[in-house]
Design goal:
1% strand, 21 helices
């Protein structure tokens, strides 16, 4: 739970042992996404769901239970004591692989997430010393300050009426261990203006209700709020946020904090810039990290994978949808044929779930837990060429609802409606995703 470090396990029903149809194995591998899915259309999925009707009920064992899923395991989060025990005299983390296994079984105790997440993300090397990490942190703070200054300079250019380019100098995802190196594409002031415009609209529509905003007031410095407001104003986000009268003072401060992080990211990675959906993705980082620079660079590490979902040619998200289709086709050919038969062959209903890593389906606290489980699973992945764990999670959600799809869905709109109104138990989903992954790997 978010307030403590202990959680109880939950048991699942025993299912019948079964096996997938071997004759159809491999068909999914050659499949392409059946239809082009656009970001604007993806955000508008809720409009399609409005025309769907009926309340679909699950009856009988799920397809996963029929395939052999038995029960859910007991789980406890990684606690501070065990993490400290794993650190030697120099601060190196020993047996990091063992700690990953603990995290995959129980997540991370909230009190040490800000310490552990950089290791999970690859921002910090477990074999590095405490002294080396301190030096790295100082260097990253300077680079973040440089990005902030670049955003201010771009905003000033826009106010002055000039539209020159400023060399980014950070390198985005093209650099070394920390994303270093020189940028090949300069930052265009007009592009910054458009990124800022879209971001301002999204910031004031963000749901802050599940965020704990009290920790933002300190941030290690007494003048942090004044400095944040000054930076937000100089970067072009303050006025729009302050104009949202329905936001509380703390919510406005959080919006400015997120806006600052995302504008810096748009300058750091100009090829991606800012896209709708990124406010959802940055929220966990704004919640976990009180230090801005650490929050930014942790988010940047996450975006090295997530940015593929925001490519303008949609090749990244299309690849992940294709992986979902492949696994469903290989393990559940009847279900796959049903989806094809009712016009859902594009798997468009998975778009939003993949785009923002289930942020819209999960509360913030559940999203934080899910991300650390996801990262632990990815670091422990046995097969380099296997689909990403997020894809197995989406497949698990589909297969868990196989009875509803097979018996009650008559059109694609029914499926869209179902997946726009999901209530997800994170632990059930993750256990099911592991089961699906193991089944698929053994099947292959």
């Amino acid at each position: 739970s978010e307030s403590g470090c202990d959680s109880d396990g939950e048991g699942g029903r025993a299912g019948e042992q079964g096996s997938p149809n071997n004759a159809l194995f491999g068909l999914g591998t050659a499949l392409l996404v059946g239809a082009t899915v656009g970001l604007g259309v993806g955000i508008g999925v809720a409009a399609v769901a409005a025309i769907a009707s009926g309340h679909l009920q699950q009856e009988g064992p799920t397809l996963l239970e029929k395939l052999g899923l038995r029960q859910f395991k007991q789980r406890r989060p990684l606690k501070a004591e065990k993490w400290c025990e794993a650190c030697d005299g120099e601060g190196k983390v020993t047996n990091f692989q063992g700690l990953l296994e603990d995290i995959s079984k129980g997540g991370v105790c909230p009190s040490i997430r800000a310490t552990v997440w950089p290791f999970l993300l690859g921002l910090v090397d477990p074999n590095s010393t405490a002294a080396a990490r301190s030096a790295q942190s100082e260097a990253l703070q300077k680079r973040y300050a440089h990005l902030t200054d670049q955003c201010k300079a771009l905003q000033k250019e826009l106010l002055d009426g000039s539209t020159s380019k400023i060399a980014e100098g950070e390198g985005g995802d093209n650099g070394g261990d920390n994303g270093g190196g020189e940028a090949t594409n300069p930052v265009n002031a007009e592009e910054y203006k458009e990124n800022r415009r879209i971001l301002n609209l999204d910031l004031v529509r963000t749901d802050f209700s599940s965020m704990n905003l009290t920790g933002l007031s300190g941030n290690g410095e007494g003048d942090w709020q004044e400095r944040l407001t000054a930076d937000a104003s100089a970067m072009g986000v303050n006025d729009h946020v302050e104009g949202a009268e329905y936001l509380s003072r703390d919510q406005k401060q959080c919006a400015k904090y997120m806006g600052k992080l995302l504008l810096c990211y748009s300058v750091h990675d100009p090829q991606t810039g800012y896209c709708q959906g990124m406010t959802d993705l940055v929220q966990p980082f704004a919640q976990i990290f009180q230090e801005e620079a650490r929050s930014f660079w942790a988010f940047e590490r996450f975006m090295r994978t997530a940015r593929e979902n925001f490519m303008t040619d949609e090749s990244g998200i299309s690849k992940r949808i294709s992986q979902v289709k492949m696994v469903v086709c290989d393990l559940a050919p009847d279900l796959f044929e049903k989806l094809n038969g009712i016009g859902a062959e594009s798997f468009f209903f998975t778009y939003r779930m993949i785009l923002v890593f289930l942020r819209r389906e999960l509360s913030l606290s559940d999203s934080i837990l899910f991300l650390e489980l996801l990262w632990a699973e990815e670091k422990m992945a046995r097969e380099e060429e296997q689909p990403e764990f997020i894809c197995f999670c989406i497949v698990a959600l589909i297969m868990e609802r196989s009875n509803e799809i097979m018996n009650a869905c008559k059109a694609e709109s029914d499926v869209v409606h179902m997946f726009c109104n999901l209530k997800i138990n994170v632990w059930h989903m993750v256990e099911e995703a592991r089961f699906v992954r193991d089944k698929w790997l053994n099947h292959a």
